[in-house]
Design brief:
The chain is mostly helical and 396 residues long. Helices cover 83% and strands 0% of the residues.
Length: 396
């Protein structure tokens, strides 16, 4: 922990955890791309099939902190391997699903496994790396989700179109097997194991500083998804050719890879201090879409900037929550590690709902203004939290 350089062993662990999040992300996100195939195959409406997505997100948000609290004393290596094995079994069962209820139950169980594994991956990345390299390591682990959207999901959709939606779960099962093998050989045996009570864990959730930190990423993601949820209608309003929209969305995902790299750099020093201004820039970028989308090229460039700003907050807020837990409730770092993924799901749900309300009230492009306002709120909350940090340092 005193070294500042990453060894080959460190990099191997980072790549293994990134592979794990890539697999988990592909399993979580690909369902959106194959919903119509599922609804057609199982003879139900698209709206009913859509509950597979919402049920996953709700379960993820509720169950992750609960399970992390209850299992905080479990040996991390054995627990992670068991969960990856469970993920493989659940995805394999999805292949042979013949009813909506069966698939729904399997997706709910997969959501629980996914949420806990993501949290554990973040803890392992945080506690096994040199202090100055934690931001870089966690940005790589988050990068697995970005690659899942850019690479994993499109491959899964192509497989579904060619061989049926069940075949997509063959892909996630196979990827799960690869993640299990890599984790079995690479995960360290000596990982922290803190025994704490449920009371210790949930005392963290009543701490005002933790709650404040939780809503920073929730608002940050909310700002993006107020607009991103309705990006396709916006592109159609820009008169983008129908056959180019999927290419533009791919470009959006590709640019987010660089957003993830920058997130690690922001987190390397004075993360929350820097994040105050990142949200202000995000507000300007989102609001600018109101005007730039009147011109196709300017609009595309602005959308590219929106993607670049979208996930700059991830690494900083993940480390911030873990570090705050170290100050206020050291026995609850496991729960703290689960809060950023939960906050992102809360933000996505909030932003999508808010954008929908604005959209149905009238002018679609008003979502850009509202997204900008939410980003300003995230900035103000970050300013306030950073100020409290500085006061605490002075009084220490």
């Amino acid at each position: 922990m005193h070294h500042t350089k990453l060894s080959k062993r460190h990099w191997l662990l980072i790549l293994t955890l990134s592979l794990l999040t890539f697999v988990l992300g592909t399993s979580e996100f690909v369902i959106v791309g194959i919903l119509t195939d599922i609804s057609s195959s199982l003879h139900m409406t698209n709206a009913k099939a859509g509950t597979l997505v919402s049920a996953f997100a709700i379960t993820f948000a509720i169950a992750t902190p609960l399970v992390m609290s209850a299992t905080s004393h479990f040996p991390k290596r054995k627990w992670m391997l068991f969960l990856i094995g469970s993920f493989i079994v659940l995805n394999a069962l999805c292949i042979i699903s013949t009813s909506y209820i069966m698939l729904l139950v399997l997706r709910i169980m997969t959501a629980i496994v996914t949420g806990v594994l993501i949290s554990l991956a973040m803890i392992v990345a945080s506690e096994t790396m040199p202090i100055k390299k934690r931001g870089l390591a966690i940005s790589f682990v988050f990068g697995g989700f970005t690659l899942a959207n850019v690479v994993g999901v499109p491959i899964g959709v192509v497989i579904a179109e060619s061989y049926g939606w069940n075949a997509t779960f063959m892909l996630t099962t196979f990827l799960g097997g690869l993640a299990f093998l890599a984790s079995f050989f690479v995960l360290p045996t000596r990982l922290s194991q803190i025994r704490s009570s449920i009371r210790d864990q949930f005392s963290l959730m009543t701490n005002p500083r933790i709650l404040m930190a939780f809503f920073i990423p929730a608002l940050g993601f909310g700002a993006t998804y107020t607009v991103f949820t309705y990006l396709v209608p916006i592109l159609k309003g820009m008169e983008a050719p129908n056959n180019s929209i999927s290419l533009i969305l791919f470009g959006y995902g590709f640019i987010s890879i660089f957003s993830n790299i920058l997130a690690g750099k922001i987190a390397s020093h004075n993360a929350i201090g820097r994040l105050r201004f990142v949200f202000l820039v995000q507000a300007v970028v989102l609001t600018s879409l109101f005007w730039t989308t009147n011109h196709f090229i300017l609009g595309l460039a602005n959308i590219g900037l929106m993607s670049l700003m979208a996930i700059l907050l991830t690494t900083s807020t993940q480390l911030y929550l873990i570090d705050l837990a170290g100050i206020y409730q050291p026995k609850a770092t496991g729960l703290a590690a689960s809060l950023m993924p939960v906050a992102s799901n809360v933000g996505i749900a909030f932003g999508s709902a808010l954008g929908g309300i604005v959209y149905h009230q009238g002018n679609l492009m008003n979502v850009t203004w509202v997204g900008g306002i939410v980003a300003v709120c995230a900035s103000l909350l970050t300013f306030f939290s950073h100020r409290l940090d500085q006061k605490q340092k002075k009084s220490a």
